[in-house]
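Example 3.2
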Amino acid sequence: MAKHLAIILPLALLAACGSKNEKQGDGAAVTPEASAEVKAPSGPLTDIKNKVACSTVKGQHAPEGAPADDVLGIRSGTSLEDAKQILTCANNLYVYSENEGTWSRGDEKPTQRFLRLSGDGGLDDVFVDFAGPKGTERAVRMIRSIEYAEGTEQTVEGIKASLEQKYGKFEELRGYRSNYSTGSIVYSIDGQRLGVNNSDFDRCSRGAGFGASDSAALTNCGLVVNYNIEARPNDSAVTQRFTVTVFDSMAAQRLMDGIDATRKAAAEKPTEGPRL
């Protein structure tokens, strides 16, 4: 079973690919990061595998003509419950846990609740970062990491081709180790595709992070897609592990600003007196 999964998982990455238009939304700038103060994992969530009718579960994808911005059908704005169902139907081996913390946003804006949903599928792991009060969380950052068992590895060029088929042409960056390959797709807040020599490219790329161990920074950036491919130490053409991260900082900020507005409106609503 593990061998079979390792062979077919990259194909699932390509499901319902979006097109590669170069427009995204806009928004205001802030400079936050996910808090390092995260609660201990709450343990596996209630088993939902037998409660999901996968024939009715549809992944969420960018509108036709817009660049792909999802991982396994989860994109910015997906609810926690929908994310669990989508992931369960993508891989029913995932075992889930949740970690909580805070998003620190700067500019005197109130902090927001941070929630990370982790799906452990053995060699196939997925992480979704959410923002929002309990019960109304919305996804803002998606990460998937796949490691290959001995004898099931795919070529580095094959993984790159799969990623580019879904997300578009990446700007290749220098890996921080000789057996690592990294790449980024970066959009500005007005939807323009940025080249590697643009003054905002590196800041936006790094702000999104290259995996689950990196915190995300809420910066003046649009959609960012990063990949990191680790080749086998003794064979640079063969993939040992790869990770893809999708984060739209401005979409996350708009979502958090909307939560702020809802809280403010609720606080300003006159309280009703007793009925006499």
